[in-house]
Amino acid sequence: MLLFKNNPKYNLYYTDTDSIFIDKPLSDNLVSEELGKMKLEYVLKDAVFLAPKVYAGMTDDGKFISKIKGFTDKSLVTLEDLEGLLVKGSYKSLKHTKWFRNMSEGSISIMSTPYNLVQTQNKRTIVFNDQDKAIDSKAFTIKN
């Protein structure tokens, strides 16, 4: 991943353990189903990257995709919802159905639970513009 994270050939919009979102196609020799190569999953024409493992976008063929860590009903969140959450202090309260196992009783309960979708600064510092909209993030600086 280091090959892509600090490469001046690309603008890197989002990265995770095994994925990148950049502004240009990768060289053909880097993309393959072969182990260790990159796999092209989406070409996005519009996207919002709100937090680690929380993003959504519209593909160039009009399909909506979203990834929201720990949330089961992604159909409840739109691209516009995530765009609105870029504003400092904004959040979206949702509910979703989760399964809970009780090993000692040998039972499974299905319950509706709250889920708050919000920006987080637990891994990076969010940079806001004059209108309090998130425009970037920066790595934490560790001081002695």
UniProtKB/TrEMBL annotation:
| Gene3D superfamilies per the UniProt record, alphabetical | Palm domain of DNA polymerase
The superkingdom listed in its UniProt entry is: Eukaryota
Q: What is this protein called?
A: DNA polymerase
- Give the InterPro entries listed for this entry: DNA-dir_DNA_pol_B_CS, DNA/RNA_pol_sf, DNA_pol_palm_dom_sf
Q: Which GO terms describe its molecular function?
A: nucleic acid binding; nucleotide binding
Q: Which keywords are on file for this protein? A: Mitochondrion
